[in-house]
Specification:
Number of helices: 20
Protein name: Putative outer membrane starch-binding protein
Shape: globular
Organism: Larkinella arboricola
Helix content: 40-55%
Strand content: 5-15%
Pfam families: SusD-like_3 (PF14322), SusD_RagB (PF07980)
Order of helices and strands: HHHHEHHHHHHHEHEHHEEEEHHHHHH
Number of strands: 7
Structural class: mainly alpha
Family: Belongs to the SusD family.
Radius of gyration: 22 Å
CATH class of one domain: Mainly Alpha
Distance between the termini: 20 Å
Subcellular location: Cell outer membrane
CATH topology of one domain: Serine Threonine Protein Phosphatase 5, Tetratricopeptide repeat
CATH architecture of one domain: Alpha Horseshoe
Length: 512
């Protein structure tokens, strides 16, 4: 795969869009490194390709399978009419049975490296292009932010990985050994520190491009993962005066009219239409049904594509009474029919829901449900960092430094916006649990839960318990293998894809 990274970057100009806000398309052309990286316009087109890579690396099926379904937030509706390998791989990611041949896991790994390759080309060719220092800095800052973003995913999901820090131009560049986790984090931190000096401060309305605030948030996330809470506090507190705020209503955060709002630090950009930039992640989350129009308003069958990332009733039960985020995040499709072919009769609120006798109930993710005119063609962006990340990150960083009273000043605005009473809890242990709970419900279905469980050391305990819940809830159904949900320390990382092991002679993660 590695030797193809450079070629992959060049061919993206035939596939991706181009404009100042990277939402328009690039004219189709044939390019090479020798005739392309010469003008500011060309580098802007290259930057479009680098941003577009985020859609595949962090907005894809692999992203929500590995980040959300791997956690205790969601499960799946078993489709006994489609036993294709792609479906089984998604199930096995949920069941902790994925292996080295998983194409889903390989897709996550490869897509991150494609994004890294695109960023590397920009970084490498800029010094010789003769552009102004201001332009060069602006582009370098964005490219280093993106490279850090992709490597941060790789190191958290796979551990130490090969570090490609320059454009791959031949076989001698393409086969690098795995670096250590510490070495990968050092590159990420160095990239972000440099990016912060080069990126602009946020300006509103935002364009969707990386800013100094986004880089500081990513750096703080790295520090939280490393348990360097003092450094995380410093970065996060520098974001607070930059003009961001919580929107008054939680549901409105995800509204199409609030894309790149003052609550958004960074989000994946999508645009509905025929330009190939639309989102469609709503549809896999809907029931397996011959018609989902009662949910979407568009007559369309979802008998094969749906049934994924289904909120569990345990997840619904974890919301505190009165928490507005529950109804904003989840709805319940009610109807009849067998598993795999539901007839949807109504869409109900999850608040106090009791399933009537003879009915089926299918909870689904509601926060990405918005009006659209074409099937599988939605306009929703996908959040990566919001201002509530800053506030809850500060609450965590401060609490872990025994500054629990100060932590409440950042935790409570998030709770109050959700319709809950401010917390007065100052016990470090109790507040730690409360912050973890707040993160679970605030960022539900934003692909953060599994990574939060791992970095806080709770993954094994929580997911083994969740396995017991899932097996009890689905008792009598035969689709769950007896070996599912056996979560061991080796399962905290995903396997390095087998193809990379074979062609690059890389060492596999333990347990695979």
């Amino acid at each position: 795969m590695k030797k193809l990274l450079y070629i992959s970057f060049l061919t993206t100009f035939l596939l991706t869009g181009c404009s100042e806000d990277f939402l328009e398309r690039v004219p189709e052309s044939s390019v090479t490194s020798g005739n392309f990286y010469q003008t500011e316009v060309q580098f802007e087109q290259a930057m479009v390709g680098a941003y577009a890579a985020i859609r595949d690396a962090k907005g894809s099926i692999a992203a929500w399978c590995m980040g959300e379904m791997r956690s205790d937030n969601t499960h799946l509706e078993f489709n006994n009419t489609n036993r294709g390998p792609a479906y089984i791989e998604r199930e096995y990611t949920d069941f902790f049975l994925d292996d080295v041949t998983s194409t889903l896991v390989a897709d996550k790994y490869n897509r991150c490296y494609i994004g890294i390759a695109r960023a590397n080309n920009i970084i490498d060719y800029l010094p010789g292009a003769g552009l102004s220092q201001q332009v060069s800095d602006r582009l370098t800052g964005q490219a280093k932010f993106l490279r850090a973003l992709f490597y941060f995913d790789l190191v958290r999901y796979f551990g130490g990985v090969p570090l490609y820090l320059k454009a791959v131009s031949g076989a001698s560049d393409a086969y690098l050994p795995r670096s250590s986790v510490d070495e990968v984090y050092k590159v990420i931190i160095d990239d972000l520190k440099d990016a912060i000096t080069k990126l602009p401060v946020p300006a509103f309305p935002q364009t969707g491009r990386a800013t100094q605030a986004a880089a500081k948030m990513l750096l703080a996330d790295v520090y939280l993962t490393q348990k360097n809470f003092a450094l995380a506090e410093t970065e996060l507190k520098e974001i607070v005066p930059m003009g961001f705020t919580l929107l008054p209503d939680y549901a409105s955060v995800f509204s199409l009219s609030n894309k790149n709002s003052r609550e958004s630090l960074f989000e994946i950009q999508y645009q509905q239409g025929n330009q190939g930039q639309n989102s469609n992640f709503l549809y896999p989350f809907l029931p397996l049904a011959s018609d989902v129009s009662r949910i979407t308003g568009i007559t369309s069958q979802n008998r094969q594509g749906g049934g994924w990332n289904v909120p569990t009733f345990e997840m619904i039960g974890t919301y505190e009474p009165g928490d507005k985020r529950l109804e904003a995040s989840i709805a319940i499709a009610e109807g009849t029919g067998v598993v795999g072919d539901m007839t949807i009769e109504a869409v109900k609120s999850p608040i106090g829901y009791v399933k009537p006798a003879g009915k089926r109930a299918y909870p689904f993710i509601k926060k990405y449900l918005h009006a659209h005119s074409l099937e599988q063609n939605t306009d929703d962006n996908f959040p990566i960092y919001r201002y509530s990340d800053v506030l809850l990150g500060l609450a965590e960083a401060l609490n872990e430094q025994n500054k629990s009273a100060e932590a409440l000043t950042y935790l409570n605005p998030v709770r109050v916006r959700a319709g809950l009473a401010p917390s007065t809890q100052t016990s470090q242990a109790a507040l730690r649990d409360l912050i973890a709970h707040e993160r679970r419900v605030e960022f539900a279905f934003e692909n953060k839960r599994w990574l939060d469980l791992v970095r806080t050391g709770k993954a094994i305990e929580v997911m083994n318990k969740n396995g017991e819940y899932i097996k009890a809830f689905h008792a009598g159904e035969s689709y769950l293998p007896g070996t599912s949900y056996n979560v061991t320390p080796q399962r905290l990382l995903f396997p390095i894809p087998n193809r990379e092991i074979l062609i690059g002679k890389l060492q596999q993660n333990p347990g695979y």
